[in-house]
Amino acid sequence: METLIGEGKTKQVFSYDSDHVLLRFKDTITAGDGAKVDIMENKGVINAQTSALIFRLLERNGIRTHYVGMYDERTMIAKKLKMIPVEVVLRNIATGSIVKRLPIKEGEIFDPPIIEYFLKDDSRHDPMLNYYHLEYFKLMNRKEAEVVESVMMRVNEVLRDIIRKMGFELYDFKLEFGRLGNEIIVGDEITLDSMRVRDPKTGRILDKDLYRKGYDLKTVKEAYEEFLSKLEKVV
Ligand SMILES: Nc1ncnc2c1ncn2[C@@H]1O[C@H](COP(=O)(O)OP(=O)(O)O)[C@@H](O)[C@H]1O
Ligand SMILES: [Mg+2]
């Protein structure tokens, strides 16, 4: 049975069987915690395909994800997880909120990378959390956070390598995790909505920052398409 059981800004969740869901990627593109919204034609297909390729790549590299297969071109079959409403961000190069929040300059390199936690709460603009908050809200204990961080680092190695093969650089990315039994595995999506990717030679942006910065939807779509077609050639 396929009943709608959840819906967010960019995906719908349908029940599939007792331990799987369908994730249907919509054509919606949003920024500013949903304050700016548009329809970018075919975006759902592009993002579903991008996610599928990256999840398969991670699985081949021994990283557990919720990915099972594709139901149609914009719908993923995934293991049903009890999602943890936290965005885990890994930063290799400074850009975005961190350069506004802290005395850090755009383009500064983090070696080792910096990992941050944010509560998924649009009305509060996704406040940052530390281990005490994670524990207090019963989101993750410290041991689980350490597991999550080691997964973030391994995902970073794999993603960075593949993106370099495409001639680009991975500035940062966000993952969402969920529980399956007593394991915590990678869920949600990995797309240009959730990563920052730039051309290191020209500084050209390929990710959702194009939309955040007000570029027209045609420019945004062409960047998403170019990234996917280059990804298809290297994975
Ligand atoms: N494997 C999964 N099992 C169950 N729910 C999932 C899974 N992967 C992602 N989700 C959920 O799908 C919902 C829709 O995603 P999305 O549209 O990106 O939401 P949001 O607007 O909160 O970012 C989210 O609540 C997310 O937690
Ligand atoms: Mg989302």
Automatic annotation (TrEMBL):
It catalyses: 5-amino-1-(5-phospho-D-ribosyl)imidazole-4-carboxylate + L-aspartate + ATP = (2S)-2-[5-amino-1-(5-phospho-beta-D-ribosyl)imidazole-4-carboxamido]succinate + ADP + phosphate + 2 H(+). Pfam families: SAICAR_synt. Keywords: ATP-binding, Ligase, Nucleotide-binding, Purine biosynthesis. Residues 5-229 form the SAICAR synthetase/ADE2 N-terminal domain. Its EC number is 6.3.2.6. InterPro entries: SAICAR_synt/ADE2_N, SAICAR_synt_PurC, SAICAR_synthetase, SAICAR_synthetase_CS. The keyword Ligase applies. It comes from the Archaea. It is an enzyme of class 6 (ligase). Gene3D superfamilies: ATP-grasp fold, B domain (3.30.470.20), Phosphorylase Kinase, domain 1 (3.30.200.20). CDD domains: SAICAR_synt_PurC. SUPFAM superfamilies: SAICAR synthase-like. GO terms for molecular function: ATP binding; phosphoribosylaminoimidazolesuccinocarboxamide synthase activity. GO terms for biological process: 'de novo' IMP biosynthetic process; cobalamin biosynthetic process. Pathway: Purine metabolism; IMP biosynthesis via de novo pathway; 5-amino-1-(5-phospho-D-ribosyl)imidazole-4-carboxamide from 5-amino-1-(5-phospho-D-ribosyl)imidazole-4-carboxylate: step 1/2. Belongs to the SAICAR synthetase family. This is Phosphoribosylaminoimidazole-succinocarboxamide synthase. The gene is purC.
